[in-house]
From TrEMBL:
The modification 4-aspartylphosphate is found at D51. Keywords: DNA-binding, Phosphoprotein. PANTHER family: REGULATOR OF RPOS (PTHR48111), RESPONSE REGULATOR PROTEIN CARR (PTHR48111:SF37). Residues 124-218 bind DNA. The keyword DNA-binding applies. InterPro entries: CheY-like_superfamily, OmpR/PhoB-type_DNA-bd, Sig_transdc_resp-reg_C-effctor, Sig_transdc_resp-reg_receiver, WalR-like, WH-like_DNA-bd_sf. It comes from the Bacteria. Residues 124-218 form the OmpR/PhoB-type domain. Signal peptide: none annotated. This is Response regulator transcription factor. Residues 2-116 form the Response regulatory domain. SUPFAM superfamilies: C-terminal effector domain of the bipartite response regulators, CheY-like. It comes from Chelatococcus albus.
Length: 222
């Protein structure tokens, strides 16, 4: 899953990016509304953390521009504790949730997980595909009750496929949603990670749809 953080306070921005990357997300960042609006309009993010008090273009205007342009990704806004009006303005502009500053990182991560699973149509933190269970809160994958050790890129890949289980995902979509801006994007690496995942999982839940991409589905007869 690929996220965008738009926050002008560089310390808070860095803390957010570090926590999100540690939680298994690919993360891009922006420090003003102008840059954030451009990235949100041109890159396919799964969710955005957006500060309301931004230089150049304020957060509400950025969000309104995204929605007017048809961008539907979930947006979590950050507001100052005493600015209830920011919350109202943010929701009116199209926000999905908010966190007030100062905030607890665990709460922000939990709210983001909730936004991501609702956007994909899931009700809980646990995603299930045949014998494979993925706990988005713990960042853990188990097969038939046995934990599977994955690299960060392998985890992002299986998490994206399982969030969208049953839908064929092209290699280009996987590349766009698994890597941040600065990553050397070579779609051939997806095939490498798919091969590693299949070997580590030991079960046939990742199907290749020739000419189209990959789909996470329970094994035949499961």
């Amino acid at each position: 899953m690929r996220l965008l953080v738009v926050e002008d306070d560089r310390d808070i921005n860095r803390q957010l990016v570090t926590a999100l990357e540690h939680a298994g997300y690919a993360v891009d960042k922006a420090f003003d509304g102008e840059e954030g609006q451009f990235l949100g309009e041109t890159e396919p993010y799964d969710a955005v953390v957006l500060d309301m008090g931004l230089p150049k273009i304020d957060g509400a205007a950025v969000l309104a521009a995204w929605r007017a342009a048809g961008r539907t990704m979930p947006v979590l806004i950050l507001t100052a504790r005493d600015r209830w009006s920011d919350k109202v303005q943010g929701f009116d502009a199209g926000a999905d949730d908010y966190v007030t500053k100062p905030f607890h990182m665990e709460e922000l991560l939990a709210r983001l997980r909730a936004l991501l699973r609702r956007a994909a149509g899931h009700a809980t933190n646990e995603l299930v595909c045949g014998p494979v269970r993925l706990d988005t809160r713990a960042g853990r994958v188990v097969v038939d009750g046995n934990p599977v050790k994955l690299t960060s890129h392998e985890y992002r890949l299986i998490a994206y496929l399982m969030h969208h289980a049953g839908r064929v995902i092209s290699r280009s979509e996987l590349v766009e949603h698994l890597y941040d801006q600065d990553f050397d994007r070579d779609s051939n690496t997806i095939e490498v990670f798919i091969g590693r995942l299949r070997k580590k999982l030991g079960v046939d839940i990742i199907q290749t749809v020739r000419g189209l991409g990959y789909v996470a589905e329970p094994p035949p007869g499961d």
